[in-house]
Amino acid sequence: MVEVPKVTDIGNKVRATVGSWSRRTRVIGGVALFLVLFFMWALRSQPVPADIIAIGKGDLLVTISDEGETRVKDVYVVSAPVAGRVERIEMDVGDPVIAGETVLALFLPQDPSVLDARSRSEAEAGVGMAEAERARAQAQLDFATSDLRRQEQLFKEGTISEVALDRARLAVRTAKAALDQAITTAAKRRTDLETSRASLAKAGRPTGPGTKVDYIPVRAPVSGRLLKRMQQSEAILAAGTPLLEVGDPANLEIVTDLLSSDAVKVKDGQEVMIEDWGGPAALKGKVRRVEPFGFTKISALGIEEQRVNVITDFVSPREEWSSLGHGYRVETRIVIEKRTAVLKVPVSALFRSGEDWAVFRVDSKSGGIARLTKVKLGSRNTLDAEITSGLKEGDAVILHPSDQVADGVEVAARI
How confident is the model at residue 38 (pLDDT cuts 50, 70, 90)? Predict the structure, then answer.
């Protein structure tokens, strides 16, 4: 006998099957929804990381910077006073010297016997020439005198004119003047010869171990230190040959060669900040003079530049820069403009937008959206620029904006 299932059993099985299908469907649907939400989250647009800073007011210094070099204000070059032999110079660079006392070098003039022997030979030759000239002048006078006598006799006889007689008289007077000049010249030459003979006799005195040698001492022209030594060993030098440089290192100045386009902005008396000189803090200085002439200098890139020297005096006490010396390198920043309480923005936030300057301002009300904002600038230096319009105090701007930053892009502060 076949058992017929009951209606209630069939309903229970159907409900069980449908219930099992609903649980599986719910699980699959949940997984699918999770995957969809995950991919939507992964593919959503991310804020662009950026360096953001809030701008404010402060002091602004407009400066011109360049390398400078220290130098002693008054450098004295000591040269050979006469031609002769200089003894070995034993002084070292940096040794102290006292004006009028310290002997820097000893000079022995050239051997006078050599010079006087030459002078004597020249004088003897000059005497001989002068005597010959006197004899010639005497012969011309004798001839002119004899000719005048003949001309006078002929004039008495009426053979020649009075003009011819005057010419003969003129020739006699001219010959007498020439003879007088020749006699004077010969006397002078004989005097020179006697002087040379006397000098030679004096210079030729015997010299020995006990004989005193007359050196010429070269003394320091100013108190200070020996800065440079161009000659050390014993040598025969011509008069005027540079030997040493002497100066006072306590009297330093700084010379900075600026581009001529920058030098026109510098005025006497402007403040100077002296940096990178090796000390713990910056030094203070003041522009003393802007030289009125320029010169051409080849830059490291091989470009010809017109440069102008700007001279700076130290304002800081001597004790703060006593370790500096002649020819030391320093970095000078000349303050050409000083502004106080101005709204300023870092130069790294600025860029060109067409013909205008612009920044990316971060709009916090819109959730950190970058807004391209055009601004107008006033004074500026290498770090900051004055904002005259376009921004207000407290606005946030982006530093070094990358090519991913554009108007309307969401940004977030870089951690």
Answer: low
pLDDT tens, 330-366? Answer: 999 999 999 889 999 999 999 999 899 999 999 877 7
Q: Which phi and psi angles does 16 have, rounded to 5°?
A: -65, -40
Which pLDDT score, from 0 to 100, does residue 21 have? 52
What pLDDT was estimated at residue 215? 79
Tell me whether residue 70 is exposed, middle or buried, using C-beta atoms within 10 angstroms of its C-beta: 0 to 12, 13 to 18, 19 or more: buried
- For residues 387 and 359, the answer to whether their CB atoms sit within 8 Å is no
Beta bridge partners of 356: 353
Q: Which residue has the tokens 């001309």?
A: 151
CB 360 within 8 A of CB 371: yes
pLDDT at residue number 208: 43
Report the alpha-carbon distance of residue 390 to residue 373 in Å, rounded. 7
Which residues, including other chains, have CB under 8 Å from residue 340's CB and lie 6 or more apart?
A: 59, 60
Give all domains of the chain, ordered by start, each with its CATH number.
Answer: 48-74+248-415 (2.40.30.170), 76-102+220-246 (2.40.50.100), 112-203 (1.10.287)
Q: Which two tokens stand for residue 153?
A: 């006799």
Please work out, in degrees rounded to the nearest 5, the angle formed at the alpha carbon of residue 174 by the alpha carbons of 172 and 178.
115
Confidence of residue 100 (pLDDT cuts 50, 70, 90): confident
Asked whether residue 165 carries a pLDDT value surpassing 60, the answer given is yes
C-alpha radius of gyration, the chain, whole number: 51
Task: Please list the alpha-helical segments (H only) found in 158-208.
Answer: 162-203
Alpha helices in 43-55 (DSSP H): none
Q: CA-CA distance, 405 to 370, in Å (whole number)? A: 7
Does the global pTM surpass 0.70?
A: no
Q: Which amino acid is at 259?
A: L
State residue 56's pLDDT score.
Answer: 92
Count of residues in the chain: 415
Structure tokens at 149: 């006598």
Is residue 276 within 8 Å of 301, Cβ to Cβ? Answer: no
AA identity, residue 84: G
Give the number of other CB atoms < 10 A from CB of residue 112. 14
